[in-house]
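Ticket reopened. Same input as before:
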Amino acid sequence: MDDPVVELNVGGIIYAARLSTVRKEPGKLADMFSNGVDSIPKDSKGKIFIDRDGVLFRYVLDYLRNQNIVLPENFHEKSRLKAEAEYFQLEGLLRSLDTESRQAGYITVGYRGTFAFGRDGLSDVKFRKLARITVCGRVALCREVFGDSLNESRDPDRGPMDRYTGRFFLKHLFLEQAFDNLQDAGFKCVASCGSGTSGGSAELKPGMDPEESRWNHYNEFVFMRE
Amino acid sequence: MDDPVVELNVGGIIYAARLSTVRKEPGKLADMFSNGVDSIPKDSKGKIFIDRDGVLFRYVLDYLRNQNIVLPENFHEKSRLKAEAEYFQLEGLLRSLDTESRQAGYITVGYRGTFAFGRDGLSDVKFRKLARITVCGRVALCREVFGDSLNESRDPDRGPMDRYTGRFFLKHLFLEQAFDNLQDAGFKCVASCGSGTSGGSAELKPGMDPEESRWNHYNEFVFMRE
Amino acid sequence: MDDPVVELNVGGIIYAARLSTVRKEPGKLADMFSNGVDSIPKDSKGKIFIDRDGVLFRYVLDYLRNQNIVLPENFHEKSRLKAEAEYFQLEGLLRSLDTESRQAGYITVGYRGTFAFGRDGLSDVKFRKLARITVCGRVALCREVFGDSLNESRDPDRGPMDRYTGRFFLKHLFLEQAFDNLQDAGFKCVASCGSGTSGGSAELKPGMDPEESRWNHYNEFVFMRE
Amino acid sequence: MDDPVVELNVGGIIYAARLSTVRKEPGKLADMFSNGVDSIPKDSKGKIFIDRDGVLFRYVLDYLRNQNIVLPENFHEKSRLKAEAEYFQLEGLLRSLDTESRQAGYITVGYRGTFAFGRDGLSDVKFRKLARITVCGRVALCREVFGDSLNESRDPDRGPMDRYTGRFFLKHLFLEQAFDNLQDAGFKCVASCGSGTSGGSAELKPGMDPEESRWNHYNEFVFMRE
Amino acid sequence: MDDPVVELNVGGIIYAARLSTVRKEPGKLADMFSNGVDSIPKDSKGKIFIDRDGVLFRYVLDYLRNQNIVLPENFHEKSRLKAEAEYFQLEGLLRSLDTESRQAGYITVGYRGTFAFGRDGLSDVKFRKLARITVCGRVALCREVFGDSLNESRDPDRGPMDRYTGRFFLKHLFLEQAFDNLQDAGFKCVASCGSGTSGGSAELKPGMDPEESRWNHYNEFVFMRE
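Engineering reply: fixed in the latest deploy. New output:
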């Protein structure tokens, strides 16, 4: 058989793979197997021995089998796996892991809103009415998440990407679209707070509906990416 | 014995199953076993060798045993399992996984409410009184969750399913029924915010109870599906 | 030895138990072992073979050993375990699992409150003062959680258990007791929102303390059971 | 060797320990090994057989090695481990588990606050200003968490520990110190809500700063221990 | 071979490593292997026996291989691992674990804010406008997180690091920068609450915009480090 099954003892855990699999990518593993398996150190049962963490090798092997890596949805050993990829000199795996690890951070989305009240007999027609959806956070993160739907025209600063801004808003008024964009980018909502307005002693400006004005509120939603 | 136990070494993890089990569905496994087990590559202990991830094979085998798949409640390797189903060409498993993975997204449920105050001596009879439960989000998601209880009559847009709306409301006034519907559909509540109204300088309309008006509030609940 | 140790290969995972353990309850396992172990299919090492998921068998065995089942606090494979109980025809295990899986749903607890202000020189004596704790949700869930402390007298509907109500309140005024009741029943708090009242243009009713009235608020707590 | 290594097959999982370790504490294990290992039932490979759950035995052994038990931070099988401690009659382990399992429950911490505004030109000096931190919940839990910093002087009830109170407050005004106390005791913050005050039609009392009065708010934080 | 593979049975779990690996650091392991492997106790299969928890030894070995330790992102056995490091007298591992375990605690970040309204026709230019970001909590924690961006000038107390303060604020006005600083330091947002202001009967001070004043709010965000 010209593509034998090789049995590996990686730090005490046993794996098995075709020889062609472990040699597929240049790096420490391919070097190890370049002269056949005879010259490689073995454990007491004749299995090829690799002095590394046995658990993480599952993903190293996965990468070699499929030439790409799909990690579990809640994988918690990414920095540990990176250390293994570096040890085995697997450029492609390292690149995949770097691509996948997005920059952490917070983005706050808020809106000033009230309700639209019917004026002509449809007294029950009262919908959420948003005046504007604001976006605050690091410029680079905000652009990554919202792309073209971001309105930056009122932000006077045109500086570097790693500054913070409180001056972005969205071109549309669909709060849940903003939420979905954030979710697509790996952010999740971690907190929120709302507040109403104060009546104050100020007169309403002409043309403003007094009932609409009473229901004014500001809701703020905090999103985080780990 | 015409239905022998076959022992499999899947990437280093050992499984055992009846031959009839692994051959039950057309695909790569059935092909592999179509000519008996003699011609199949073996590991050093004579176990049939399969060069794939050993952990995920647990669910592949489960699917073959039961012809359907019940995943753990917090299963975090769905995309990884999909890759295995594709590799083994198991149409039914692939279909089950696709059916199960519902579209992610946010839905916001809100209500304008106050309290009903007793007018005739039952001064302590004060219940939550909801004026309307609003539903905002992607049209397709909202319809999936709320079905017939969704009132779309005030939404002027009749466009495609993947647009967003802030104009849906529910035909009933039971907030927790809406929550339960969302839970049934796999959404969970991730945030909420409340706000009162402002007294403003506006006069109350005739017939409105001033105490009820004082307690007006808008509570908004954010639900997410991963 | 009249009660030998039997070694089981369940889908590739090895278990060991006394023969009396696996035969303790009527069902598929007792049937299998009714004529001794000689006629049962074995794997290549002579271990008794069972073509089912190996991981879940841990709990099947546990049930047979103790005649009752204590699951891990965050057990995520309940539906999968149920499928195994059905396969092995273990009535008692099935019953335990059904008893344990409580109905999912949401209950909302809210209170209207303010602070009690001292009137006679103890100006610093200001405590939370609750007017009433309301309970909203499915009737069956509310009754299960709050039992006798639930006041249903103001709920005009006397219909079926699976309707929703917004008209229940508690006979006591201890918010944290309500929370503890919910926790005991497996609910956890997932969201909350607060709102103050509006001054409006309404006069205070005679006898109401103006400072108390200023601090009126409505806090609402959302509890969920998975 | 007078302290040999004994190999145990606990429900199918293999453990190894010194004989002195398994005999260290009186109970079922010490009894089992009191007459040497020859008379103890063995599995087919000559390993000592114990008909109990194999996974939980890891912690039983740990307890015997160290005479105390340190559980993982998110251990989810405490009730299952207790059942094992009972089975093996390990008094010390049972006691440790009982000590460690603290009473579940909710405590609510709230504060009435506003901001301190500068009166003499330092118009920007505006800090959070707390009037009082209130503590509500079961008396026993509140005392356990806050100890001497709890002021109970305004609580008229002097009854049993398992009653609820809404009348405790703290002797200091550092909100985060209260939070840290709760965290030290194993509580975590699960919800919070805030509300402002209503202007009402009431006049401010003499000496009250009108700007401070405008910013009055009540924030309430819900903590839970599982 | 002058650097043989040693096979270890640690409490029943099998590990394998180069001899040079287990001897790399002074301590109990190096002592054990100082005279070769012959005099060390073995299990029945000739593997070197160590009477400690088998699962945690994975990280002990990892530390010896790499001279540093990278733990999984959600590692829940830190106190258990520390006990192992103490047992094996591995100073470096112990130091790493101590360095890594940062002090738990809460920090509250809040801001008083409103919206900037356009005065000259740009009526839609309305951004979040923050007056000040306050920071409350233990002095040592606040300094660790915010460093030079912390303004302590208004805190009259100059006492020890372990006191609490409600008087710090930030030198900048970017809320999300504060959030990102907290995230970098391992804190996560666990709660938040918002409140508006009351109109009161007070006149606005000259020069204050009445609309801006109406939208005044105080939002408070609670961060926790475990």
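Chain C has a mean pLDDT of 84. Residues 4 and 18 of chain C are 6 Å apart (CA to CA). Please confirm and we'll close it.
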